[in-house]
Please model this.
Amino acid sequence: MNKQNNLSKKSDAEVILDKLNQLIENQNKSWLLQLNEDSTILITTQDIADFIKLSYRYTYVNVVSQPDFPRPVMLIPKQNKRGRPSHRRWVSGEVVRYFHQQKKLPENPIPNIIKILGIFLTHFFG
Model:
């Protein structure tokens, strides 16, 4: 029984460590939460995907390719292997404005982070 208990505790610990790793990853991307309609930072497709909490592929195929999505800024007028422009960036304020107009802005993850941290502390410190 002790072995099973230790295994389940280890499993719980692994789950908690995964959640903490997610928290760290979210913290590294917290600058995205500070973007607003006046922001002038140039952002990538991956940044947009992180901002709206969708995959890169979905964002590339279904979001930034929409005809009404803000036009990208081309940093280097080169073409990739498919003949498409590479090094596209978007003005972050225009992207935020687009999502405000679409009413599709992501939720603020901070309440979820606090909830996960509470579960962690309760689990280990009772």
